[in-house]
């Protein structure tokens, strides 16, 4: 069986080489901490996600107005917004993040297949507050720097880091890094299969070492969120189920108040 993560890395390299991340847009980066927003949240800390498509679902939303969506997510009580900027498989764009930044004061994560330093610099340049890094890509040798150097480089650019994991081994390594947040992706990026028990098993078997743990993917209902909260997750990244609904503000509220 082919590993879809290899496909993502290969296509990301093509996107980088195409000059996609070369932009003249420069937005003053607001100093907002996603980690602190999560820790100070009185309800469920929900990180909502703006994405038009995904490899597993195909097109999720045909009409994507980033400003309207970001405002609706903020009104719904989201603690932060993840914005897909990867163009090939998620139909994302840098413009989507730029428009979201203009519309909201919430912390924003640039979610992409980050392999090189230039992408991190662009994230800071267009107003992101954090970047998502995928531990498995470092383990595969896809990135130009080590995970520790990449985290340090992100910090030097004023960005926090959400370091995503999927296995016990990845998680144990990640919690020992200087990543601000550690994610557990319930989706296996090799096969695209989802299992919420991924978060349960990893947190049952491992010490989180005081890190803020974000459970990602497959959260479709408030019951799903409650299950993951009971497993020990401190925040929840929710994309497709929110983007598929007509009333985004109300859908976000359902999760925030669960």
What do these coordinates show?
The protein has 258 residues and is α/β, with parallel strands linked by helices. It has 13 helices and ten strands. The strands form two sheets. The protein has an eight-stranded parallel β-barrel, surrounded by eight helices. It has a two-stranded antiparallel sheet with strand order 2-3. The radius of gyration is 17 Å and the shape is globular. The model has no long low-confidence stretch (mean pLDDT 96).
Write the layout of secondary structure elements.
Elements: H1 4-17, H2 34-39, E1 46-50, E2 53-54, E3 58-59, H3 66-76, E4 80-84, H4 87-90, H5 94-103, E5 108-111, H6 117-125, E6 130-134, H7 135-139, H8 147-156, E7 160-165, H9 168-174, E8 181-185, H10 197-205, E9 212-216, H11 222-231, E10 235-238, H12 240-243, H13 248-256
Parallel strand pairs: 1-4, 1-10, 4-5, 5-6, 6-7, 7-8, 8-9, 9-10
Antiparallel strand pairs: 2-3
Helix pairs in contact: 3-5, 3-13
Short descriptors:
258 residues; alpha/beta; 13 helices
The chain-level structural class is alpha/beta
The pLDDT mean sits at: 96
**Low-pLDDT regions:** none
The helix/strand series, from N terminus to C terminus, equals HHEEEHEHHEHEHHEHEHEHEHH
Largest sheet: 8 strands, parallel, barrel
Through-space gap between termini:
38 Å
Tally of DSSP helical segments = 13
Query: What general outline do the C-alpha atoms trace?
Result: globular
Number of strands: 10
**Numbering strands along the chain, what is their spatial order in the largest sheet?**
1-4-5-6-7-8-9-10
Give the C-alpha Rg. Answer: 17 Å
- How much strand? 15-25%
């Amino acid at each position: 069986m082919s590993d879809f993560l290899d496909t993502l890395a290969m296509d990301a390299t093509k996107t980088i080489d195409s000059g996609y991340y070369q932009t003249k847009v420069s937005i003053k980066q607001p100093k907002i901490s996603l980690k602190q927003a999560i820790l100070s949240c009185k309800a469920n800390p929900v990180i909502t996600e703006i994405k038009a498509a995904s490899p597993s679902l195909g097109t999720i939303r045909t009409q994507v107005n980033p400003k309207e969506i970001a405002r609706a997510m903020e009104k719904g009580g989201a603690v932060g917004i993840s914005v897909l900027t990867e163009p090939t498989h998620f139909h994302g764009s840098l413009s989507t993040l730029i428009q979201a930044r203009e519309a909201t004061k919430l912390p924003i994560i640039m979610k992409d297949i980050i392999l090189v330093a230039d992408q991190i610099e662009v994230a800071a340049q267009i107003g992101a507050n954090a970047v998502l890094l995928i531990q498995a890509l470092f383990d595969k040798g896809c990135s130009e720097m080590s995970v520790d150097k990449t985290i340090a480089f992100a910090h030097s650019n004023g960005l926090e880091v959400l370091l995503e994991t999927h296995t016990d081994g990845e998680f144990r390594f990640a919690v020992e890094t200087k990543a601000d947040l550690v994610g557990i992706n319930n989706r296996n990026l090799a096969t695209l299969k989802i299992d919420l028990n991924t978060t349960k098993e990893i947190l049952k078997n491992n010490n989180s070492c005081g890190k803020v743990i974000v459970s990602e993917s497959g959260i479709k209902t408030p019951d799903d969120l409650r299950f993951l909260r009971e497993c020990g997750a401190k925040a929840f990244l929710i994309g497709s189920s929110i983007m598929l609904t007509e009333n985004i503000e109300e859908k976000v509220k359902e999760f925030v108040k669960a």
